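Practice problem: predict the structure.
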Amino acid sequence: MNDSTEKSKPTIFYAKNSEPKKHSRSATEKSTGWKGKRKDDSFQSKSKRNRQDRIETFKPRNDKSNFIKNKFSVELNQSQSFIVNDSPWQKKVRTNEQTPTFGYDGYCQRKEETLVYSENSCKAVFKHRRAAIVKLFITQEMAYQFKDTIDWLVKQRLGYDVVSSEQISKITQTQHHGGVCLIVKKRVPLTLLDYLDDNSDKEHDRVLAIDDVNNPHNLGGLMRSAAFYGINGVMLRQTNLLDSGAAMRVAEGGIEAVEAIKGDDFVASLDMLKQRGYQVVALLPCQAKSIASSELHKIRFNKKVAIVIFQQINMKLINCANVVVHLKGNDNMPALNISVATGILLSNLQK
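Answer:
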């Protein structure tokens, strides 16, 4: 009885409450596969985190540049910037748009700089315009002879490198450097009017006007003779020729002892000199029968003299001269080198 009653009761099934799926697979997910789905699910699960649960472990740093500016009061320019450091020996970094002419050990020469090499030339730069020195390259053998220069560079916190002779040859592009080389700033030439105003109170003055002499060795010889005989100024059309390393080496420091004068128009410049009381003397490179000239021993010089030198005869300049001079030669040698002839003429100025 009990068995039949139990069988007649209806059967009841209990289903568990299934949690709703977080994500349903779409057609796109089916095509991308299971790996793509796992990657997307992980990204979505991270994005649902509560941002308030984050813990800040690092605080934003203060502006370092403002701190440096306030501490050291550094004034930054557009053309030049410096690395600020407690050490006074910190290397300066200069941003210069000019194209370097050579490079050595991270340093580049700029257009406003030039090279001076050989012992006497470098010593003359240190004597007359040491403030223009930028850097020194020297061999160990020559270091003792430039002890004063090195001491001054150290006090001024300027750089110098003790290098080999081969390295200086690479920098100067010559073997005749004498074991020492300076990087210096180029000189700024004077105008003729400024030179005359500066020397207006002098009773005696000697000016050398050089035209059409482009050979650096001849130019260096002229400058050496000019410094030896006490010439005060040298006028050229291109004063940048005096910045040649070869001319400075031949001049043996004479270029530093003479003022450089810029003269674009030689005819107008000679007329200005004549108006200021200068005697204009033209030295012929050789004797010319078509040009009236006098021998050197017959010339009487004034207290103020401007001597015109040229390798190619320029009739415009000759016509501006008060006196035309030639040095008489012979059949074996009718003319001298321009620097030698100028030295002979300058020696007669002392008489």
